[in-house]
Write a structure and sequence with these properties.
117 residues; 4 helices; mainly alpha
């Protein structure tokens, strides 16, 4: 994964957690710790239920926050999948290059020359 993509994903998560913490602090009037705790358990989909929003704005904000969190999670998962596939391809190519015999690319070129003769 490109370092810039990793940085963007980390910054997005940090902003999402910080924004959620401030939102719940202001809207629900919870302490900073409770606001942060609720933000993290909501984003992680754990949802202990020990703290729940009481205001209508808090409930609406929570649903929007959950959807945003799921979106960020899906993007992170997709990027991780791309990384795994890329590493697997590199590993497979390395293993193929270690096989005894001629270079597969060289064999392909020789076959192409024979066909054109």
């Amino acid at each position: 994964m490109h370092p810039l993509k990793i940085a963007a994903l980390v910054v997005t998560i940090v902003l999402l957690v910080a924004g959620g913490t401030v939102f719940f602090r202001l809207v629900e009037g919870w302490s900073w710790l409770d606001s942060y705790f609720f933000t993290v358990i909501t984003l992680s989909t754990v949802g202990y239920g020990s703290i729940v929003p009481a205001t209508a704005l808090g409930k609406i904000g929570t649903t929007v926050f959950i959807l945003l969190g799921i979106g960020v999670f899906v993007v992170g998962l997709q990027q991780f999948g791309v990384l795994v596939l890329r590493k697997r391809e590199e590993h497979t190519e390395k293993l193929i290059s270690l096989l005894p015999g001629e270079d597969p690319g060289k064999q392909h070129k020789q076959r192409s020359r024979r066909k054109s003769d």
